[in-house]
Amino acid sequence: MYVFDAPEQASLAVQGSTDRFPIRRIFCVGRNYEAHAREMGKDPTREAPFFFTKPADAALDTPCTIPYPKLTEDLHHEIELVIAIQKGGSNIAESDVMDHVWGAAVGLDMTRRDLQGEAKKMGRPWDWGKAFDHSAPIGAIKPIAEVPSVENGRIWLAVNGVTRQDADIADLIWSVREHISILSHSMELAPGDIVMTGTPAGVGAVGTGDVITGGVDGVGTLEVTIGPRL
């Protein structure tokens, strides 16, 4: 018994099925493309990957409309390959990572860039810039057996039909196998965990009425409209 009704389980759609993928946690890899690291003013050397998180209920199915969030004047898009974990484990070897993967999708790490920038300057956590409501729109998850590759394939994003981000997931500084293995050496992964693998260069601001489209070849596409301010 709970003292009030428990919240609904956060979940995502599955391609070609009415079943849904239950979400436990959302992990995000920071600065995992060289060109994006440069546009953020950072050295793109192969330093150890770092992670931040979003709440499970920040995720929502696409296509969707999300409100322009509170407290920001600089809402940015970041297109990402998303990996869905089906089997938990600690200290997972790179060679075994794909045995733990249920599927892949394409998602957006929406970012209140002004709040993130303030946090960086003050040495504070990024939560207020990254982990807000509706900050992780994600397309339907494709079972991994149907995904041609998580090592190469075009990743792209357009705003109102104009391309802004256009790269290849082969450009990841730390590959899917590498950074999921490293993550599992920090904490035990569990079924339902989601890993957002980083964004390429070309991030930028969006406003009310803008329509974001994007995708990863062989994985899926998404469409997100920015609605009125909350």
From TrEMBL:
It holds the Pfam family FAA_hydrolase. Gene3D superfamilies: Fumarylacetoacetase-like, C-terminal domain (3.90.850.10). It comes from the Bacteria. Residues 26-226 form the Fumarylacetoacetase-like C-terminal domain. Keywords: Hydrolase, Metal-binding. SUPFAM superfamilies: FAH. One of its GO terms (molecular function) is acetylpyruvate hydrolase activity. InterPro entries: Fumarylacetoacetase-like_C, Fumarylacetoacetase_C_sf. This is Fumarylacetoacetate hydrolase family protein. It comes from Sulfitobacter geojensis.
